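Recall the central idea of this unit: under ordinary conditions, the amino acid sequence of a chain determines the structure it adopts. In this exercise we apply that idea directly, starting from the sequence alone.
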Amino acid sequence: MYNINNVALIPNLTKKGAFEASLETIDILRQNGMDIFMHGNLRENYRDGNIKFYDTTDILIGAADIVLTIGGDGTIIHAARHAAPLHKPLLGINMGRMGYVAGLEPDELYMLKRLGTGEYSTEKRMMLKIIHESVNGVIEFYSINDAVISRGSLSRLIDIEVSLDRDYMCHYRADGLIVSTPTGSSAYSLAAGGPVVEPTMKCIVMTPICPHSLFARSVIFSHSSQLVITASCDDETEVFLTIDGARTVIIKKNDSVLVTSSELEAEFINLKDRSFYRVLNDKFAEKSDYK
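Accordingly, the structure predicted from this sequence is:
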């Protein structure tokens, strides 16, 4: 349980209704004794004089007790990557379509008062550490959802080789490969035929994308496993590594991608007494009704 006095509010104002939801959120938080912190690039949008602004996301989150986002899953995941190293819990308000990792819908903002009364729980989620090694050096990434190796725009299969704990494991000829956390198992991995995994579990899920094989299936590894992945294509088709659908780098033939569980964990706030599977069922019911 956290003593919540200061809230870092991160709205994605490109989402329809996000600005209006942010104003309502600010009112509810203030009525329950909390102060609002925001990024300095939002000064022109919020001029009531009672909001404290910070010049960078890391300083903003570091100064607050919790992080509250208003947007889609992308907004939540981006904020969570900043919040995890600072050990700050996060709550997302869903203004997107699915919002798998969001804790509230726009019509549930009244529940924010529970932050002031302590009527909430928190849960920690495993993250991935991804190391891209190339002739240009080593780059590290951290992922909440997944790391995806995929081909470029040309319709060519790519050859992907996977080693487990430095021993050769398997080879895929496929459109790509998804390595996900349990949280990310309900995102791209699920769409590619992967399993649904309880998000508080600690494991690594590997799912090939459209493999040229009759028997290729998802594989679930222990959280202590180390995967080394190489990928190449016979022609000039580019191969990409994409982290959480946001950051992308080009993978060359002799590059390697090391995937392990991270020492960092993302912590999410839960204001509702609903199981993960109930939330997942509700999300898919909403999607089936979408027109």
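The radius of gyration is 20 Å.
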